[in-house]
Amino acid sequence: MLSKNTVKFIKTLHQKKYRNLEQKFFVEGEKSVLELLDSDFEVELLLVTASFLEGHQQLIKQLEAEVIIVSQKQLESVGQFQSNDSALAVAKIKVNQYFEYNQNELVIALDDVRDPGNLGTIIRIADWYGIKHLLFSSQTADFYNPKVLQSSMGSFTRVKFFYGNLAEIFNKWDCPVYGAYLGGSNVHQLTKPKPGILLMGNESNGISEELEKFVTDKVTIPGYGSAESLNVAIATAILCDNFRRMSGV
Amino acid sequence: MLSKNTVKFIKTLHQKKYRNLEQKFFVEGEKSVLELLDSDFEVELLLVTASFLEGHQQLIKQLEAEVIIVSQKQLESVGQFQSNDSALAVAKIKVNQYFEYNQNELVIALDDVRDPGNLGTIIRIADWYGIKHLLFSSQTADFYNPKVLQSSMGSFTRVKFFYGNLAEIFNKWDCPVYGAYLGGSNVHQLTKPKPGILLMGNESNGISEELEKFVTDKVTIPGYGSAESLNVAIATAILCDNFRRMSGV
């Protein structure tokens, strides 16, 4: 049975403050929950409808997590989804772990990307383009925000990320830093770019002056019409696509 | 002075039913309002804060619309923005007008793209890539939905669109139809594609069977990782970018 305390506890996890305090987060909906159960995240609690349980008995049997059968209405009252007839899971936040740069890898770095939908979409794009590592400035949206997880469409389980001081990291890493700017080189004319860091800036202000110093190549998506700019997630996708096609992979 | 009736009237325009009945819509925020005033849309009513009025006196003087000075709080109570210290404008909906296909043009067609954020983002992408014409199936989100207009970032003023039966139009137009599929030809290997229609499907179900018959070229964005799919606006952007770069423009 779903206790009032459990309801209250899950509801606190909507807020970053409590996620940090508890070092826990939740995901909801069939796709995200199944991806979570298939990952190396440590799941502690699983709320399931009877029909979800029936459809995934084998998988759920193997779990060490506490499993509570709930109604669709209960799921919707604790989560953020308007409609959820499957499941919601609570898992442990992973330790914020620094990683070294692997030669030949493309890494995405985000300088204060604040919108959770943008961050989630960028995680999904990274996963599509086989990018394993992401760097986030400390003011970037919280990875464990339910909207980030939702818009990543399960890809949040397949990327590694580190929140930290990007200037310090760029200083240490010996690789090109491609910065997305409005007035840089046409990315369509970049041939065989070396692997490195693709740096994307804040939605309103772009890349900060502090980080601009580390940018070795300013790149731009050529425009053919009158829009002033592109959304940061859209720009990330187009740049990743150009990098992949031009690296001949 | 802002009357209760005007407040009530603008609030009804949040709903498609009343927008259709009144043949009017609203936009809010500095950027969208300025783009609207600079376009061929017929503006009927303009709510402005004193500071917005002061900043744009010349422009507002030339308007034939009714202008009402309001407080930021009033703007926020009639619109959908959490924060709006500039303006909100009510304008006339344009007649849904069919257009013929111009040779050498790339047209975007949407088969039931339902999410207003996706539609608005696609309009912004079209404007970035110089695509002037869009076709929407009748179940596609409403162009005049405030969220569509907002996410188009002003680009809604620079595209022409027609809501109608896509099958009938494809039947008439003599040009390739490029359909976005998960199992089509690698778009990176498409060289010098002929201009035509880029057809994007519904968020969950893709392109309908009825329209699949008209697709001359199934195209796919190559994936390098494990994400199952890309968001429809993201995919539209990547495909437009590939078309533009490969047409040698």
Explain what this protein looks like in three dimensions.
The first copy, chain A, has 249 residues and is an alpha/beta fold. Chain A folds into 2 domains: 4-92, 60s Ribosomal Protein L30, Chain: A (2-Layer Sandwich), CATH 3.30.1330; 107-246, SPOUT methyltransferase, trefoil knot domain (Alpha/beta knot, 3-Layer(aba) Sandwich), CATH 3.40.1280. The first copy, chain A, has helices at 4-12, 16-22, 30-37, 50-55, 57-61, 72-78, 116-128, 146-151, 166-172, 209-212, 232-246; strands spanning 24-28, 43-48, 66-69, 87-92, 107-110, 133-136, 160-163, 177-186, 197-200, 217-220. In chain A, 43% of the residues are buried. The A-B interface holds A 117, 121, 124-131, 151, 153-155, 158, 188, 221-231, 233-234, 237-238, 241-242, 244-245, 249 and B 117, 121, 124-131, 151, 153-155, 158, 188, 221-231, 233-234, 237-238, 241-242, 244-245, 249.
List keywords for this structure.
homodimer; 249 residues; alpha/beta; 60s Ribosomal Protein L30, Chain: A; Alpha/beta knot; 2 domains; six-stranded parallel beta sheet; four-stranded mixed beta sheet; 10 strands
